[in-house]
C-alpha cells in the first residue's frame, strides 16, 4: 500500500552472560544447576556425616551404648531435652536444661529431672547442674558428670566460673555422692579438672572415671570444711584424685566413696622416660579403655613418650577396680614413625582404635598399628587368685572378627 511504512523487528541481542529477554535458556539453566551441585558436593557430604554423628551421639545419650565402653563425659550438656535409659529399659531419666542466658546451644545452669520406672514417675526435681555423660543402672541408680557456669560466655571452654560436677543419685533421687569442683585453666586453656569417660560396673558396684585431675593437692580439709561433713568429704575426694595427668578414679557405686586412683605415670615413671604428662617432656597418656567381659578388669591403652631421644610407644595394661595393675605390655617406638609421617594424633591412626575383641568372656585383642596385626589374649584367675594373661592367637587385622576370632 502506497505510503504504508513497514518495520522490521531488531534481532535479540544476547549478552555475554547468556540471558535472552530476561530468561536463561534451558541448556544454560541445566548447566548452572550442575555447576552449583558440583560446588556444593563437599558441603552435602559434610552435612550427611554430621547427621550420622549426631545420630550416634543421641543413641549414646539414650543409654544405647556398649556397657563395656562406657559413655563420653568430656563435653558440656546441650540445651536439648534428652532421655537416658537403663540397659533393661525399666528405668529412664529425662534431663531438660533450663533456658540458657545466651543462645549458643550450651546448658550453663541447672536442669529439670524426671525419673520413671516402667513409665510411672518415681521422682522429679530441679537441680543446680545439667548432666551430660549419664549412666542409668538396672537398680535405679544414676551416675553422671556435668559442667556448669555461673557467668556464661561464648567461650565456655576458657570460662573462669565453670564447674565440674560428679554425681551419684539413688533410686529416690537423693545425692549418694556429689563432688563439685571449680575449674581452672589447664594446658592449652582447657579447663582443669575434667572427666573424659565414665564406665560403670554394676555387677561389682564400681564406677570408673577417666579424668584429668586438679594439680597435686596435699592439704587436709580446713576447719571450716570439717564443720560440714559434706564439705570435708568433697575436699578429701579432690585431694585423693589430684595428680599431674590422666588417671582413673574408682568409686563405690553404693556409698560414693573414693576406692582408689590409678595413675599410669606413677607406675611407669622413671627419670629418663617420664618427666611430665606432655609430649615435650615425656610421659604416659591414656588413649582409650574398655572393660574385659566376664572379669573385674579394665583394659587401658596408653601412649608412652620419651624425651631424649624423642619416641612414642604403646602401652597396654590391665587394671582391676581397686586401682591395681595386674598385667602390662610395653611396645617401645611403636608409634614413632607413624606419628612423624602423618603428624596426627592416635585417633587418626589406621583403624581408629587399638582395642579389639572384648566381646567374649575372659578374652581381648589389641592391634599392633604399624604391622596391622591383631594379638588375642586370654585372662583367667589361678588358684592363688592371681590373674594370668596368655597370648592365644595372632593374625592379620583385616581377617579378624571380634566375636569369632579370625575368619577361616
Secondary-structure content class = alpha+beta
Task: Quote the distance from N terminus to C terminus.
Answer: 99 Å
Outline the low-pLDDT stretches.
5-24, 49-64, 152-158, 270-281, 403-408
Task: Report the portion of residues in β strands.
Answer: 35-45%
- Mean model confidence by pLDDT: 76
Strand order of the largest sheet: 1-12-13-14-15
Shape: globular
What's the helix count? Answer: 6
User: Would you count the extended β strands for me?
Assistant: 25
What percentage of residues falls in helices of 4 or more residues?
A: 10-25%
Number of domains: 2
Q: Largest sheet, described in full?
A: 5 strands, antiparallel
What Rg, in angstroms, do the CA atoms define?
A: 28 Å
Describe this structure in words.
The chain has two domains: 62-262, no CATH class; 264-408, no CATH class. The strands form seven sheets. Strands 1-12-13-14-15 form a five-stranded antiparallel beta sheet. A four-stranded antiparallel beta sheet has the order 2-3-4-5. The chain has a four-stranded antiparallel beta sheet with strand order 6-7-8-9. With 408 residues, it is an alpha+beta fold. The chain is globular, with a radius of gyration of 28 Å. It contains six helices and 25 strands. The N and C termini lie far apart (99 Å). The chain has helices at 26-39, 41-61, 223-226, 229-241, 264-268, 336-342, and strands at 71-72, 82-85, 91-97, 111-117, 120-127, 131-136, 142-149, 162-169, 175-182, 184-185, 191-192, 194-201, 206-212, 247-252, 258-262, 283-292, 297-306, 311-320, 325-331, 355-356, 363-368, 373-381, 387-396, 400-401, 405-406.
